[in-house]
Automatic annotation (TrEMBL):
Molecular-function annotations in GO: methyltransferase activity
Organism (species): Zea mays (Maize)
Listed name of the protein: Methyltransferase
Membrane topology: Single-pass type II membrane protein; Single-pass membrane protein
Top-rank taxon: Eukaryota
Gene coding for it: LOC103635742
Entry's Gene Ontology cellular component terms: cytoplasm; Golgi membrane
Length: 611
């Protein structure tokens, strides 16, 4: 009995020691994991590397995460493959379709604005590429050449032949760089502007080209490190925006009509109109007031073509001297009302500069026509009517101060703390969180490159970030080889698009329950961070994914970052759309519930579908 008691005591002691040791080990392991720093980082990195998803399509997440929040139809259901749409929808733009547009009023170009189909008219099929579609030329060759098979529309080659917009040569279109107002080429035209505007000094980084044609101005401004968003309606000038994007130039289908532009206030360093046919002298100056809203304090407005230079060119414009003179007089009056200073008028080009602040323009306060707009958020623009009023600028304590804060010249502007952050104008963000966001996305982008080593090689020129946040994804990718359209969803908790523009990047507001204002096959890579979680109770995932498929080029890439339960459903739909997918762990390892879905859209065309 004595020996048995001794054995029991020994056994109990060993059990206690083992339990204590295990508890201590797991406590220290938990502290190490929570800290994310110190000597354990190397081990953690090694562990993460060893536990990366290898056979990703067969990966089961149940060991790490609960799937209790999955929608019922994603557990074991099979999604039927989506069929191709009819060939007639090759250039389908859901919110700018001609047949629907013609049912709306023509006043103020309302019929050319966005008019999206109701749910019962939405297409639930895959938009086909035209027969013979091939990958676009790489930049900078794409600036000058576009495959005819990709945009098989010749009308502009005839209509704009003498203006050097575009020529058809063999199986390609050639873009000489001309425009209606600069048939000798955009380079010479830009040099004229640069003699007045500090374009080459990094002070002008973001520009807006209204009524852009095929966006040759934006294409050639890249040489000056200027990012230009160009827009034009989908009208009788067939496929002009489609040509712009096929060339690798930022553009969207849009018009100055009755609705505010999808940009925040104080966004652009320069706005431009070259014979853009916008009635600047009409509507009590409303269109000039909208340009004033989106121009940064101290920004420039360029107007070339009628009525500027009417004394010399009126005979060729087929308008009377009196009409042209009266039109320019009204424009000058509205410019004075807005406190713009005219700094140049020469060779049919006039340039004004916007006021730095409201203190510098006391006369406006006494002008009964200079009504200030109400104090609303500078992001409250989606489907909001334009008004005949002047957008107020942030207060300053001196007439020499720039309202809203002075920006650094580019490229310093890219990582300098934006004034909206410094001044606390963006709820939930501080200088510290801004800098942390930059570091985080630099880490994420480096991880993306390890998976897709073509990311910054020029293979992807037109890139879209569907939920851009502070623009840190685009900042981490910044390169002359590419540009990023930073989209801030209209339902986002905080509007950050103003910050994105203060960084010298471009973007726009959009509601992803609707079609984006672009042609099919216009983006090479689409990045989505949390979009499906954001829209989970707003619209169907199929609507968003089919829109992504529409605007993505064949063999284009997709990166979707979201919660694992959301991505399970997204991946099933993606596979039903002929995408090849790969699910990967978060950069922090397999225990992080957020995952990344990499996908590639497969190549197929009308001909292959029908054969």
């Amino acid at each position: 009995m004595a020996r048995n008691l001794t054995d029991n005591r020994t056994r109990n002691t060993l059990v206690m020691i083992v339990i204590f040791g295990l508890c201590s080990f797991f406590y220290l392991l938990g502290v190490w994991q929570k800290s994310g720093s110190g000597g354990g980082d190397g081990i953690q990195t090694w562990v993460n590397e060893q536990t990366k998803c290898a056979q990703l399509p067969n990966l089961s997440f149940e060991t790490h995460h609960s799937a209790s929040n999955l929608l019922n139809d994603t557990d074991n259901s099979k999604i039927e493959p989506f069929k191709p749409c009819d060939e007639q929808y090759t250039d389908y733009t859901p919110c700018e379709e001609q047949s629907r547009a013609m049912t709306f009023p023509r006043d103020n170009m309302i019929y050319r604005e966005r008019h999206c189909p109701p749910d019962k008219e939405k297409l639930y099929c895959l938009i086909p590429a035209p027969k013979g579609y091939v990958a676009p030329f790489r930049w900078p060759k794409s600036r000058d050449f576009v495959h005819y098979a990709n945009v098989p529309h010749k009308s502009l080659t005839v209509e704009k032949a003498i203006q050097n917009w575009v020529h058809y040569e063999g199986n390609v279109f050639r873009f000489p760089g001309g425009g209606t107002q600069f048939p000798q080429g955009a380079d010479k035209y830009i040099d004229q502007l640069a003699s007045v505007i500090p374009i080459a000094e990094g002070k002008v980084r973001t520009a807006l080209d209204t009524g852009c044609g095929v966006a040759s101005l934006g294409a050639y401004l890249f040489k000056k490190n200027v990012l230009t968003i160009s827009f034009a309606p989908r009208d009788n000038h067939e496929a002009q925006v489609q040509f712009a994007l096929e060339r690798g130039v930022p553009a969207y289908i849009g018009v100055l009509g009755s609705i505010k532009l999808p940009f925040p206030s104080r966004a652009f360093d320069m706005a431009h109109c070259s014979r853009c046919l916008i009635p600047w002298s009409g509507n009590d100056g409303m269109y000039m007031m909208e340009v004033d809203r989106v121009l940064r304090p101290g920004g420039y407005w360029v107007l070339s073509g009628p009525p500027i230079g009417w004394k010399i060119y009126y005979e060729g414009w087929q308008h009377s001297k009196e009409d042209l003179q009266n039109e320019q007089r009204k424009i000058e009056q509205f410019a004075q009302l807005l406190c713009w200073k005219k700094i140049s008028e020469k060779d049919g080009i006039a340039i004004w500069r916007k006021r730095l602040n409201d203190k510098s323009c006391s006369m406006k306060q006494y002008n009964p026509k200079g009504v200030k707009c109400g104090l609303t958020s500078d992001s409250d623009v989606w489907y909001k009517k334009m008004e005949v009023c002047i957008d107020p600028l942030p207060n300053v304590n001196s007439v020499s101060k720039v309202a809203g804060g002075q920006l650094e010249p580019f490229p310093k502007r890219l990582y300098a703390v934006p004034p909206r952050i410094t001044l606390g104008s963006v709820p939930g963000f501080s200088v510290q969180s801004y800098e942390e966001d930059n570091k985080l996305w630099q880490k994420y982008v480096e991880a993306y490159k390890n998976t897709n080593n073509l990311l910054d090689t020029g293979r992807y020129r037109n890139i879209m970030d569907m939920n851009a946040g502070l623009g840190s994804f685009a900042a981490a990718l910044e390169s002359p080889k590419l540009w990023v359209m930073n989209v801030v969803p209209t339902i986002a908790n905080t509007s950050t698009l103003g910050v994105i523009y203060e960084r010298g990047l471009i973007g726009m507001y959009h509601d992803w329950c609707e079609g984006f204002s672009t042609y099919p096959r216009t983006y090479d890579l689409i990045h989505s961070n949390g979009i499906f979680s954001l829209y989970q109770n707003k619209c169907q995932f199929e609507d968003i994914l089919l829109e992504m498929d529409r605007i993505l080029r064949p063999e284009g890439a997709v990166i979707i970052r979201d919660k694992v339960d959301v991505l399970v459903k997204v991946e099933k739909i993606a596979n039903a759309m002929r995408w090849k997918t790969r699910l990967a762990d978060h950069e922090g390892g397999p225990l992080v519930p957020e995952k990344i879905l990499f996908a590639v859209k497969q190549y197929w065309t009308v001909a292959k579908t029908s054969s």
